[in-house]
Write a structure and sequence with these properties.
The complex is a heterotrimer. The two termini of chain A are 22 Å apart. Chain A is mainly α. Chain A is 75% helix and 0% strand. Chain B is of the alpha/beta class. By secondary structure, chain C is an alpha/beta fold. In chain C, β9 and β10 form a beta hairpin. The longest helix of chain C has 18 residues. Classes of the chains: A mainly alpha, B alpha/beta, C alpha/beta. Chains in contact: A-C, B-C. At the A-C interface, α9 and α10 of A face α2, α4 and α7 of C.
Amino acid sequence: MGAVLVCIAVTFIVFLIFIVVPGGDPAQRIAGKNATPQNIINIRHSWGFDQPFYTQYWVMLKKMFSGNLVSYTSQQNVLTQIVQGMPATFSLTLGASVIWLFFGILVGVLSAITAGRLSDRVITVLALIGISMPVFWLGIVSRYYLAEGGIVSWFPDGEYVGITQSPAQWLSHMILPWLVLAVLFIGFYGRVLRGNILDTINEDYVRTAKAKGLTPRRILVKHVLRTSLIPIVTLFGLDFAAVLGGGAILTETVFDLHGVGQYAALSINNFDLPPIMGVTMYGAFFIVAFSMLVDLFYAYLDPRIRPT
Amino acid sequence: MSTTGQPLVEIKHVKKYFPIRKGVLQREVARVHAVDDVSFAVQPGETLGLVGESGCGKSTLGRTIVRLLEPTAGEISFEGQRIEEYGPRQLRPLRRQMQMVFQDPYASLNPRKRVGTIIGDPMKIHKLGDAKERKARVEELLETVGLSPEHYNRFPHEFSGGQRQRIGIARALALRPKLIVADEPVSALDVSIQSQMLNLLEDLQNEFNLTFIFIAHDLGVVRHVSDRIAVMYLGKLVELSPAEELYTRPIMPYTEALLSAVPIPDPDLAAARERIVLEGDVPSPVNPPSGCRFHPRCRYATQVCEEVEPPLVEYGNGHLAACHHPLNVDAAALQRA
Amino acid sequence: MAERLLEVEDLSVHFSTVDGTVRAVDGVSFELERGKVLGIVGESGSGKSVTAMTLMGLTRDVNAHFGGEVRFKGRNLLELSESEMQGYRGAEIGMIFQDPMTSLNPVYRIGEQIVEAIQAHDKVDRRQAKRRAVELLKQVGIPNPESRVDDFPHQFSGGMRQRAMIAIALSCNPDVLIADEPTTALDVTIQAQIIELISRLKDELNSAVILITHDLGVVADIADEILVMYAGRVVERAQTRDLFYDPQMPYTWGLLGSIPRLDRPKPERLHSIKGAPPSVINAPEGCKFRPRCPQAFEKCVQEPGLENRVETPGHLDRCWLDVEVKRARRDATISGGHSEAA
């Protein structure tokens, strides 16, 4: 119930922002460059821009839920556009998330076990660099150096190829975007996990585990990691949802993947309300859904939270 | 210490329940009966010891008396004023009269504040004196509790547990309160520091004519500081007695068991005495047992104990107990009660 | 003469820290025989917990330096490799800790945690191990063990958690149980239960117990021999009755006198020891207790050795005072103390 309310609130806020922020008259933009004032008034009327804002809002909500939202600029149906962009966004999310989760955990564990020593320091610096590098910069640089037409042509230069068309092509097109997107998260997750592990190692129950005579490997995996990974689960759930919901705007745009994120970027650029609404709802849906999933999973992981 | 006259604090039928909420709409599905109908009065200048095990409600009661918590029901009177329904505004001037000292000296002091600020803040909040006067008073307080005035600018982490507890006491004294509720003030301290602290509290009481409500689980400690002792079990007051009499003539079997459980640092005595070891655990205050709450663990329990809750009855000399089968009471006293 | 399970000789544990060397344990010696309970009593900073953890090898660290020997059934545990030490932990020596809530992993069921302890040393399958776990829970007095074995730690009360910890520690039948302040976090009526349980199990399993506590009342009940530790050293060592009825160290008098006693009339003022325990980094010269000792005199600038100065053999102390003078002063200090020696 609360989830639905959140989604609706999101749409309302977006709408409000759109009304409040000056961005030019949509009617004018729809009419085009050579419009006469009468054209503009006609368009305004046929599109309903002369109605009070709450009516417009209501109309828009209706259109959205019936799949009839249409873009101001391109006249295309928003839902269709989103659906077209989904495969690319999904591919980006799934691949990148697997990479960042695996390496993030690896990095976190390694730096925690060797805490204070050289390897830990090296990893920490690398992680910080990873976190600090702007995604778009890294994207552009990797295209420049590694993609076709660049220094070495190991990878195709952007664009997306569907997996059903050609798995090999799909893979080669996705590798760079995956790596670029993952780098940021690996650094972040590694740091967070390292901190959690170092805290958990000092817990009393880890001391008990040692007193039982368990091997260090077992203590690490069954006791330390089990607890340290719980916050990572929450982070991952939300990050995954964000990227899935079109949040990787920069990555998608830099690599020209034509996914939902890029569509969002384009619409914002054009100050085009319907697609913005559509994408926002789409994204909000995933975030809310995954939040609930994470909550449920959390209860599974930490029995203290389960309802008795 | 006067035994007649108007009590400083009086509570009547005070209850404090905490709701347990479940579900999306946060409906109340059960309640924790932390304090369940407790009444007593504390005379000016006396020390009332409040003992019980975990879950008995003594800490909750202490906080409710100083209005850190609002009672679910019942009356609380301070110097004759009924304060149970006072809002924050009305409570403000009262806060100067009632203060609290907490158990954990490591957690109850703000680590970011200097000692001088910690002790002086209460005065600042109540607008007492200018900065210079406050500083002088803080230094005076530091000396009173056995610390040095030079400690004014130090941070809590630079002190040991015992010293921090002294700082907490100095803070409580800053406003010259009449009542101090001390919630397990020595439990976290080493034995040799404990006794220093108890002696200090006794000295302070004499010097400033303080009234104490001393909450503890250690019967030995409580005996040393208290004039009267109240024993709580699962939210109920089960015995109230002049201090010495509680130890020589416990009436309620729970008190007897509690006394018997206290370890005696004397091997021969320890071996010789009959140890009453209670079965089972303290039940949950969410679903307390029917009738007398102690009946599942009581070795004298009978049918009536399971069905009827025993009233708090006086057995002479200000000694009250709630039990259907009181111990150490001769027939005559039983008749009178 | 019962079998000697543990012989600790001149154990020292020093930690290098940024503030200096922490001499947590400095020359501690004792023996533990089968069937006996050894009590180690001390306040914070006395080194009692570090001693206990060192017996289990839990203090091993890059910054920890050990001296002396810890001979368990003949072998020096300090010399064992970490993996050899794992073989001893739980199997030969078990340990329980102070706070049972945080000492149990909250995300695993009690049964799982016991099974884990069993399978760490015995080659049994899960089902067998679980049956043993239920047996153990019954042995430690947990009602309805068959259903409670699947509970989580937060569903147990404090006393029951400590019982579960004891079950874990004893799951592989170790010959020595080390209990580090097992009752400090528990209510007094539960304390009595746990102490009784530890004592009973020791008899049933014919093992030995090292009980570490700050509470002299607890050791009076079940200990056979007691070590009093102060500032990393043993300052008095005696059979229980000797310690309580003929204490030789002014520190011990101080401890005994500071405890409010229920069995005696209330004193006007509680006897207390002035000052605070010393820093273990910059310990004072000579007798470590000197700054706080009301009996200190010139000789105390030289540290006394731990020796037998009274008639009773086996009663060691670190005090220069002449025994007769000492006894006279002591009886004046601890009011109402027993004046008959053991």
